[in-house]
Amino acid sequence: MKSITLTRFLIEQEREADALPTELRMLIETVARACKAIGNAVSKGALGEVLGSLGSENVQGEVQKKLDVIANELLLEANEWGGHLAAMASEEMETLHRIPHRYPKGEYLLLFDPIDGSSNIDVGLTVGTIFSVLVAPAECSGRDVTEEDFLQPGSRQVAAGYALYGPQALLVLTIGAGVYEFTLDREIGSWRMTDGPMTMPQGAREFAINMSNRRQWSPAVTRYIDERVAGSEGPLGKDYNMRWTASMVADIHRILKRGGIFLYPADAREPGKARLRLMYEANPMAFLVTQAGGAATDGTTAILDIAPSGLHQRVGVVIGDKAEVAAASAMAEVG
Ligand code: F6P
Ligand code: MN
């Protein structure tokens, strides 16, 4: 297949479409390079002695896998010295990571989930890296960046994407002008475009949710799912299929490619809280899916409009097919 490289795509975006500042282009290239290194580590598996846990916990109280920490380090090291960033934040770090004083500072803020779907690492299933890019507020030039500088709604993202380490290594990216997919060509070591601008198919009858949480759901979520499980014998009169990989990045990729809806709603386990994180999971995925013609809410409010209150804030996620997201949100509003 003849296709352009990520490098060429980004340069063309910068040159022709005027959609991409040079510094942001270089930042995306750096993140993409780090994702190659992470994919390489993931693919070694047991042979590279990268599987298993460390015994430590991250700020979320989750046991850190070796690969969570390796991937976090790879992203920090790759992005520290290029001069594009003001600071970084990650699922694996309690607070922000400032650019050391010995390096020049840029205007961007990078957030990432180094390995999403960590529970799949040790069984050899698909995991990925999710990232989001914001612009540091103008007033933070000349002073140290703070956590508050990161707390901007997802609508302010200037780029977002994910890498998927599955049968192929894939990179899916938006800079606010469509969604593009690149596949890693291992023979030449380059990301090459294999899809885009991507439009997610609408009308697919497929949902993704962890059904084992059913007894914890709100009445609205229970009704939404029950109607679909009832299929052709229920009020919708049509059958639905279900998929759950327990890697959000893999589930969302499937939805971008063939449609459907993903739900990880806030539930009764932690009142007012939820499983997924707003800043580096929900926001980048919401940006990508809406760019591809889908929708994303927390059950009622558009994810991209939520004003964050913390770096590791959790949020309910209902994302994918526009009509399905609207149907789920309408039930929530009725209560
Ligand atoms: O990052 C959180 C995450 O691993 C997501 O990738 C995934 O969708 C979810 O958690 C899986 O949750 P559960 O263990 O409840 O299936
Ligand atoms: Mn994750």
Automatic annotation (TrEMBL):
It is an enzyme of class 3 (hydrolase). Its cofactor is Mg(2+). InterPro entries: FBPase_C_dom (IPR044015), FBPase_class-1 (IPR000146), FBPase_N (IPR033391), FBPtase (IPR028343). Keywords: Carbohydrate metabolism, Cytoplasm, Hydrolase, Magnesium, Metal-binding. Mg(2+) 2 binds at residues 113, 116, 281. It catalyses: beta-D-fructose 1,6-bisphosphate + H2O = beta-D-fructose 6-phosphate + phosphate. GO terms for biological process: fructose 1,6-bisphosphate metabolic process; fructose 6-phosphate metabolic process; fructose metabolic process; gluconeogenesis; sucrose biosynthetic process. GO terms for cellular component: cytosol. Gene3D superfamilies: 3.40.190.80, Fructose-1,6-Bisphosphatase, subunit A, domain 1. This is Fructose-1,6-bisphosphatase class 1. It comes from Novosphingobium flavum.
